[in-house]
Amino acid sequence: MIEQDELITFLLCFLPLTFILLNYTRVRSLPGSRVFLFSFSFFTMGWFFTNFEGILFNDLFNLIEHVCCLCSSLLMLIWVIIYFKKRRENEYNRDS
């Protein structure tokens, strides 16, 4: 059964997705933007599978949901590292 709070959270996930799509050119200019976009994609898929598990193959889609959340978190961590490394390099190059 689909939980109402999970469905609402999934629908709310489309707000930042809309923001990202409307500002796609600015997002692409960020260092490591592909990693960021993949992270958000896994985040969105995780919320999709959270709702889909209530309809069919509960255990399978629950596992896929958690794998998506793990991938999203790891990719976000990688993106933050890339972002701050590039930022530090730019500050170093600007000071030189």
Summarize the structure.
This protein is an all-alpha fold. The chain has five helices and no strands. Helix 1 packs antiparallel against helix 4.
Helical coverage, percent range: over 70%
Using DSSP, what is the number of strands? 0
Q: Helix/strand-derived class?
A: mainly alpha
How would you name the oligomeric state of the polypeptide chains in this document?
A: single chain
Low-confidence blocks of residues: none
Describe this structure as you would to a colleague.
84% of the residues lie in helices and 0% in strands. With 96 residues, it is mainly α. It has one domain (4-95). The model has no long low-confidence stretch (mean pLDDT 87).
Element layout with pairings:
Elements: H1 4-12, H2 14-22, H3 24-28, H4 33-52, H5 58-95
Helix pairs in contact: 1-4, 4-5
Which terms would index this structure?
5 helices, 96 residues
